[in-house]
C-alpha cells in the first residue's frame, strides 16, 4: 500500500515506532483501500504516544468558483450524497476523491471534477491552494490527524458561465454508478458556503481562497 510505505518513509525522527499490528484491511478491487492498525510508538525520550491509525492515504478536493457573466455574482458548486460514516443521507461537500498510486495530484483533481460534476478541465486550469499557502514541502491539510493519516490537497477551478449554464448544473445527477456514487449537484452563492456546508474540505478551501485573495497570491476575477 503506497500510503503505508509513505507513512514509514516520512516518519518524524522524533517518533519511534517499534511494532505495527494490522487489525483489518478493506480491498478496492486488487489494491488495499483502507488499512486499520495499531502502532506501538514513543517519543525519542521514551514517552508512549497514541498509535491507533485508520489509513486511507491522500485525497484531492476541488473548490469551484463560478462567476455569472451577466450579474457578476459568484457561486460555488457542491456535491450532495449519502455519507453513512456520519449518518447523513444528504451531505453538502466539495467534489473530492482519493488519490491513486500515481501521485498525480492535479490529474486526479481533474478526473474527480469530471466524474462528479461533468466539468471537463485541463490541468493548467487548476490552482493548488494548498501549495500556495504552505509551500511544496507540505503534503496537504490533515482533517483528522488524531486517528487518520488522510491529507487533502485543495485545488481551485474558476469559470465564467451564463445564467443558463449555471442553472443547468443545479440539481444535476452525476457520479460513477459502478463505484456506488449517487451524487446531486447544488449551486449556491459563495457567500453562503460557510453556513450551508458543514464540510471540512469546503471550509478549509474557503479560508485559503479568501486569505490568498487578500494577499494577492490569487488574482480576483473580473
Descriptive overview:
- It is a single chain.
- The model has no long low-confidence stretch (mean pLDDT 92).
- The protein has 6 helices and 12 strands.
- By secondary structure, the protein is of the alpha+beta class.
- The N and C termini lie far apart (45 Å).
- The strands form 2 sheets. Strands 5, 6, 7, 8, 9, 10, 11 and 12 form an 8-stranded mixed beta sheet that branches.
Feature tags:
222 residues; alpha+beta; Nucleoside Triphosphate Pyrophosphohydrolase; 2 domains; 8-stranded mixed beta sheet; 4-stranded antiparallel beta sheet
Tally of helical segments = 6
CATH level 4 superfamily of the largest domain: Nucleoside Triphosphate Pyrophosphohydrolase
CATH top-level class of the largest domain: Alpha Beta
Averaged pLDDT: 92
- Ends distance: 45 Å
What is the annotated CATH architecture of the largest domain?
Alpha-Beta Complex
How much beta, percentage-wise? Answer: 35-45%
Low-confidence stretches: none
- Which radius of gyration do the C-alpha atoms yield? 19 Å
What share of residues is helical? Answer: 10-25%
Assembly form of the protein: single chain
Question: Nutshell version of this structure?
Answer:
By secondary structure, the chain is α+β, with helices and mostly antiparallel strands.
Describe the secondary-structure layout.
Layout: H1 2-9, E1 15-28, E2 31-43, E3 48-49, E4 52-55, E5 59-68, E6 74-83, E7 88-93, E8 96-98, H2 105-117, E9 126-128, H3 129-134, E10 152-161, H4 163-169, E11 173-174, E12 183-189, H5 193-196, H6 200-215
Parallel strand pairs: 5-10
Antiparallel strand pairs: 1-2, 2-3, 2-4, 5-6, 5-8, 6-7, 6-12, 9-10, 11-12
